[in-house]
Design brief:
The complex is a heterodimer. Chain A is globular. In chain A, 0% of the residues lie in helices and 53% in strands. In chain A, the strands form two sheets. In chain A, strands 2, 4, 5, 6, 9, 10 and 11 form a seven-stranded mixed β-sheet that branches. In chain A, strands 1-3-8-7 form a four-stranded antiparallel β-sheet, with no helix packed on it. Chain A contains no helices and eleven strands. By secondary structure, chain B is an all-beta fold. In chain B, the strands form two sheets. In chain B, strands 2, 4, 5, 6, 9, 10 and 11 form a seven-stranded mixed β-sheet that branches. In chain B, strands 1-3-8-7 form a four-stranded antiparallel β-sheet, with no helix packed on it. In chain B, a hairpin with a 6-residue loop joins strand 4 and strand 5. Chain B is globular. The chains are: A mainly beta, B mainly beta. Chains A and B meet through strand 5 of A and strand 4, strand 5, strand 9 and strand 10 of B.
């Protein structure tokens, strides 16, 4: 059974940092791109970042470029999102997402809430 | 960026009746490999989104056959042949033809 378990969210002051983690299991982690999508309270879904299967290529939304960093550890089957210089508008539930067209694998984690407030 | 536009944004439906959601993209979602990079998700209240349809018209595993996806190029449709109470939630289309991946605004389906 595929599982994506996010952690690392919390309350942080503007300008602060967090490291979000997504522990993956139940599939061949090293073969799949991984993604982060966020959802502000009461709002829609917004793609944040993606990383390819071997970690050699990363992609970011303009709104987070230069502040967020996605990475992955295949030994730990974990994808990370380092979020720095946080702003109030970064307040959202952050979802870890697997989109695997080749293997028909599509899963979302339960999300981790990041609240940026003083 | 590819802009995704959904309509309607609110969809009240009587149980047993059909429902249809439109999604239009500002650019073609057709890849060079022939696949169309358009997925449909349903986010039920209090839950993470779940995939309904991928690559335009492929029903995800476990999704009831009352859900179907169609369309090509820039115009796509999600159809529910007979709405059930469990179908309430917000429906999103999402394009993955290029980054930044983008979502439609969401269509909230409610039961009359």
């Amino acid at each position: 059974e595929v599982q994506l378990v996010e952690s690392g969210g919390g309350l942080v002051q503007p300008g602060g940092s967090l490291r979000l983690s997504c522990a993956a299991s139940g599939f061949t982690f090293s073969s799949h791109w991984m993604h982060w999508v966020r959802q502000a309270p009461g709002k829609g879904l917004v793609w944040v970042s993606s990383i390819n299967a071997d970690g050699s290529n990363t992609y970011y939304a303009d709104s987070v470029k230069g502040r967020f960093t996605i990475s992955r550890d295949s030994a730990e089957n974990t994808v990370y999102l380092q979020v720095n210089s946080l702003r109030a508008e970064d307040t959202a539930v952050y979802y870890c997402v697997l989109i695997g067209y080749d293997t028909s694998s599509f899963y979302w984690g339960q999300g981790t809430l990041v609240t940026v407030s003083s | 960026d590819v802009v995704m536009t959904q309509s309607p944004l609110s969809l009240p439906v009587t149980p047993g009746e059909p429902a249809s959601i439109s999604c239009r993209s500002s650019q073609s979602l057709l890849r060079s490999n022939g696949y169309t990079s358009l997925d449909w998700y349903l986010q039920k209240p209090g839950q993470s989104p779940q995939l309904l349809i991928y690559l335009g018209s492929n029903r995800a595993s476990g999704v009831p056959d009352r859900f179907s996806g169609s369309g090509s190029g820039t115009d796509f449709t999600l159809k529910i042949s007979r709405v059930e109470a469990e179908d309430v939630g917000v429906y999103y289309c999402m394009q993955t033809v290029q980054t930044p991946y983008t979502f439609g605004q969401g269509t909230k389906l409610e039961i009359k």
